[in-house]
Structure prediction request, 253 residues.
Amino acid sequence: MFDSGLGGLTVFREVAKARPDARYVYVADDAFFPYGSHGETELVARVGGLMAELIETHRPDLIVIACNTASTLVLPHLRTRFSVPFVGTVPAIKPACVLSRTKRVAVLGTEATVSREYTRALIRDFANGSEVALVGSAQLAAFAEEELNGAPVADELIAREIAPCFIDAAGRRTDTVVLACTHYPLLLERFTRLAPWPVTFVDPAPAIARRVADLLGPPLSGEPPSPARIAFTSGRVPSPALAAALAHFGMAG
Prediction:
């Protein structure tokens, strides 16, 4: 399981439910966080190099790229270069547009994800008559990391970041918001409480978990595996607050 930081824990949680028999290593590339602040060529080189090292070290059966920013850019390069199966994380635009009754949908992601041609192609292919607003946030992923590290973020700061998602025009309100960054479900309770009206927030993690379970095949029998391990590319040791949060996700530091 790979992410730029800790957002991928929301994907890990669902995958571990679907396949509790599997053994997991979670790698957070926090030395390069946030990915949205780096250029495309730089990111392709960074993630490709790390994958080569991780595959050599861990010999995984499957790798989940639990990061929208990386998946929308790097996934084709990884699949060409390595034989290990990869499961990516991309904005859940198709199911969101199917769900929407008002046909007004927002995609809330990092600035990098919402600017990608990949994301715009998903809208062209799957909008299904919906008007889709792209909302890029430069702060929410960092806010989620701060919360996990025991540093609460003020409601007004979060409300300011999600406000552009909520459009009320021509008698139609936004009724569906795609969470196009794996960090964002960590703030879902706050989003729900701070939203100016009720909407459906679409998290792709359950669908990713189903895909992983399909690719891994039948569950293994025998002794239950040891807790998932986490590694930070910065080499940092989790703070007590973060260690407690990781334990909540079933992760050993």
Summary: The chain has a mean pLDDT of 94. Residues 2-89+206-252 form a domain with the Rossmann fold fold (CATH 3.40.50.1860). The two ends are 15 Å apart (CA to CA).
